[in-house]
Every structure is written in structure tokens, then in C-alpha cells.
Design a protein that fits this description.
CATH topology: Rossmann fold
Largest sheet: 7 strands, mixed
Strand order of the largest sheet: 3-2-1-4-5-7-6
CATH architecture: 3-Layer(aba) Sandwich
Helix content: 40-55%
Structural class: alpha/beta
Length: 258
């Protein structure tokens, strides 16, 4: 190991102590997803594993999912209704404790103070140990809802501990709260893998509830993805996350290397 590797290892030790144990002592996870189904597909195995260990899992779904169809005969409202019911069914299978719906229009999400403020309030309300969301810095990610959600969640996780931000929350009885970690799924550079081999059947049972979103070959493709993650983790099936602390989301030139 050369000097640069040693320095980087020291930086990681100082900035991300015990990162590999991010989900081991976790009482509450707040998963903020762009659409119904995102968390179930990317992290459903981890969610059911945590739920079975007594962790409270809260899903916040930012958009209504109304754009998610190729059928011309289905209205926006009917698709949104179908997707909400699918998410409710999948959540029951995984053991999700609570569902929160923000109901922004699918595919039209924009970066606004309103969205960030709502997310800060939810972080203060549920006081999660870990905030889970999609990685907005994934190369070639073309979906605006994914990019906007990931950035808004990152900003909210960084700022939710500052009392002068969203000060009205304090007037309403909510205290500042900074999550211990923020975990990104669909990340190019994951630093934590979770063995979900024991839970893979339940994960895919939940995914199958999102029937309106499944295409031919999708289940086979997803199983290949999670087998590949498992190979990297030394198990049969795994889910991968880029885990950081809120404090590392500011002026950190080594974030991608941690």
C-alpha cells in the first residue's frame, strides 16, 4: 500500500467510522423514493431484513407515478391510483411501517425550496438513523425525478440539523435532527453491500406487486443484477449502497473514493 492509499484510508476512517455497520444498529430508516417501486426494486431485501429485526421503515414517495405507462387508454389519474395500490401491497409484504405521499407529478419534478423544506420537516418528524434514496450522481441517469429527488434529499439531510433552516418546524414542536448516514442505491461506487440471500424471495414477491411496471425479462434482469452484487460481496444475492454521512456532503473532494 503506497502513501496515497494510506492517506485515503485514514480519511475514510475519520469521515466514515463504522460505515460497514450502517444498518446494524438502526432503529428507523426513512426511504425517500422518486416513484412507487424504486425502493422495493433497489433495496427491498435490505428493507425486509431490517423490518424483521424491529427497525421502523418509513417510505416517502415523492411523485404520483402517473406517467408510468405505455398504454394510451389509461389516464394519468388511473395510473397513479394503480401504482399507489401496488406500493401499498408491496409495503405490506416487506413490513414497511408507514407510507407518506407527496404527490408531485411524475416526470415533472423540479428542484424547489418547497420540496427541500418538506423533506427537512419529514426528517425532523421521523428522526431516522439512516436516510435512503437514489444516487443523483449516477452517470447517464436521464430521469429528472431521480436526479431531483436525490439532490433534494441530500440537501435536506445536510441542513436538517440547523435550527435556523425551516425555523417554523421548531415553532411546531419539531427539533433539528441530523441522520447518522445517508445511503444511496443505484450508485456507481457503492461502499456497503448487504447480503439479502435469505430475503430474496420476499423481495421479489414485493416487486411482483408492481405488475404495471414489469416488462418481459425484467425479473430475470434484476436477479442477474443482484447476483452480480452478491458476487462482489461474497454471497449469492446482495444489494449495494453508497453510504456517506451528511457532513461529507459538503466540500468533500474525496466523496466518490470513500
Amino acid at each position: 500500500m503506497n502513501a496515497s492509499d494510506l492517506e485515503l484510508k485514514n480519511i475514510k476512517r475519520l469521515l466514515l467510522p463504522n460505515v460497514e455497520k450502517v444498518f446494524e444498529k438502526c432503529n428507523t430508516v426513512l426511504s425517500i423514493q422518486p416513484h412507487p417501486d424504486d425502493t422495493d426494486i433497489a433495496a427491498g431485501g435490505t428493507m425486509v431484513k431490517l423490518a424483521r429485526n424491529g427497525c421502523q421503515i418509513v417510505y416517502v414517495t415523492v411523485t404520483d407515478g402517473g406517467a408510468g405507462t405505455s398504454e394510451r387508454s389509461l389516464s394519468w389519474e388511473s395510473v397513479a391510483g394503480i401504482r399507489r395500490k401496488e406500493q401499498e401491497s408491496a409495503a405490506r409484504i416487506l413490513g414497511v411501517s408507514k407510507l407518506v405521499w407527496l404527490n408531485y407529478r411524475d416526470s415533472e419534478l423540479e428542484q424547489t425550496m418547497e420540496l427541500r423544506s418538506k423533506l427537512i420537516t419529514l426528517i425532523r418528524r421521523f428522526k431516522p438513523d439512516v436516510v435512503l434514496t437514489v444516487d443523483p450522481w449516477l452517470r447517464y441517469e436521464a430521469h429528472p425525478d431521480h436526479r431531483v429527488t436525490g439532490i433534494a434529499v441530500s440537501e435536506a439531510s445536510l441542513l436538517s440539523g440547523f435550527p435556523n433552516v425551516n425555523h417554523v418546524d421548531l415553532l411546531n414542536g419539531l427539533e433539528p435532527h441530523t441522520p447518522n448516514f445517508i445511503a444511496y442505491y443505484w450508485s456507481e461506487k457503492p461502499n456497503v453491500y448487504v447480503d439479502i440471500t435469505e430475503w430474496i424471495d420476499i423481495k421479489f414477491k414485493a416487486i411482483m406487486e408492481h405488475a404495471s411496471q414489469l416488462s418481459d425479462g425484467m425479473i430475470s434482469l434484476l436477479k442477474s443484477v443482484f447476483r452480480l452484487m452478491g458476487e462482489k460481496a461474497g454471497c449469492e444475492y446482495a444489494e449495494a449502497f453508497k453510504v456517506l454521512t451528511p457532513s461529507t456532503l459538503h466540500c468533500n473532494t474525496y466523496a466518490s473514493e470513500l
